[in-house]
Amino acid sequence: PVVVKVTDRGIPAKSTTNSFVVVVREVNRAPVMVPVGDRTMAELEELEIPLETEDGDLPRNGLRYQLVSGPAGMTVSEAGVLRWVPTEEQGPMETDVVVTVTDDGVPPLSATNQFHVTVVEENHPPLFLEISDQTIPELQPFEFSILALDSDIPSNGLRYSLIQGPVGLKVSPQGVVTWTPTEAQGPSTNRIVVQVMDDGIGALTATNQFTIVVLEINSPPLLFPVADVEVPLGEPVLIPLDVSDEDEPRQDGFVFEVLSGDPTAIVDSVARVFEWTALGMGDYSFEVGVADSGLPQGTDRQRFTIHVTRPVLTVRVEGGRVFVEFESLWNWRYDLLSAPYSARAESRGYWSSILPSLIPGDGSRQRWEVPITAYEGGELLRLEAIGPPDL
Questions:
Q1: Cβ atoms of residues 275 and 291 within 8 Å
Q2: Is 95 exposed, middle or buried (0-12, 13-18, 19+ CB in 10 A)?
Q3: 376 in helix, strand or coil?
């Protein structure tokens, strides 16, 4: 209450008092928001702004904030903290933000504020998907694709390249890895490093690595073709066999064998020579094979034919004599069936005054000498080779 007193100026002075009550009512004053300046930010970057407000009331009123308008994803807490992370799709963009604050006075009063936010496009590096390690055989073409993603919207173009890898391996700009390991590159373990680069402003890159294991694969030997041959009966057949091998390191332990044909034929695996002597005339087919020492074992084979003809008889006239020469065969019997009366035969240096019925066949060079002193009537010297009974 308010008490007042009045006193007069009389003698004696007199006074009186009075009292009354003054009621002071609270008047709510509107809050005033502190201005928020315009902001520029990058997409995917977090924006956080504590909103500030001045309230002239005592005691201070409670304040509650609210977002009036703004981009998708932006929030304002009741305590006055504005938060926003622009998505890739929201950059670039420009947007106005309007926020309001309301006190809890009577009556409640509010204030608004507006500011501008600019979101700029920002290039983000591409991201490789996982690349699995690979195991491949040597000498076999190999191809697979690597893949990276770009989170920018719109997506940037991507270009792939090889940073580290073995000789011959290539990576196309589209991300296709191709390689045919050579024989010398197996076995081996190869570390591959690849890179992808986008075409955004301020091009960004990413790298990834993986391993390719090359397995050693045994390549079969190659037996060169064997040409058909023609030999006279009794002449030994010696055919060199030539083989090649692509394996690295090269293999040396080749084994040759006669797969089909006369069982008396053999192949010297060390000298690599086919050996055979025919016991009769005709055409003989053979198949020879070769095997290497690799795992799994590789083989090759070739067929050829040997044409065995009549024995070669060399007949020449020299100094009034006729010489008949031929290759004698083991275990064969040679008979001079007819000759001029003055003919004589020589065998192993022994001269006979009569025509022999048996000339040993010992594999040596034989020579028959027939002097011609009287040669009338066209008589002929005829030589006939007779082999073992079963031939």
A1: no
A2: middle
A3: coil
Q: How far apart are CA 267 and CA 71, in angstroms?
A: 90
- The helix (H) or strand (E) run that includes residue 117 is strand 110-120
Summarize pLDDT for 357-376 with one digit per residue, the tens. Answer: 334 445 445 454 444 333 33
Residue with tokens 């240096």: 349
Binned at pLDDT 50, 70 and 90, residue 336 comes out as low
- The closest alpha carbon to 146, from 174, 166, 175, belongs to 175
What DSSP assignment string belongs to 132-153? --EEEETTS-EEEE--EE--SS
Q: Which whole-number Å values give the CA distances from 6 to 1, 15, 28, 182, in the listed order?
A: 17, 5, 37, 124
3-class secondary-structure state, position 64 = strand
Q: How far apart are CA 284 and CA 261, in angstroms?
A: 7
Report the C-alpha gap between 101 and 382 in whole angstroms: 139
Cross-strand pairs, 363 = none
Residue count (the chain):
391
pLDDT for the residue numbered 58: 87
Rounded to whole angstroms, the Cα distance separating 11 from 19 reads 25
The Cα 73–Cα 87 span in angstroms is: 9
Q: Cite the DSSP H helix spans in the chain.
A: none
CA–CA dist 325, 366 (Å, integer) = 6
Q: What is the mean pLDDT of residues 18-32?
A: 91
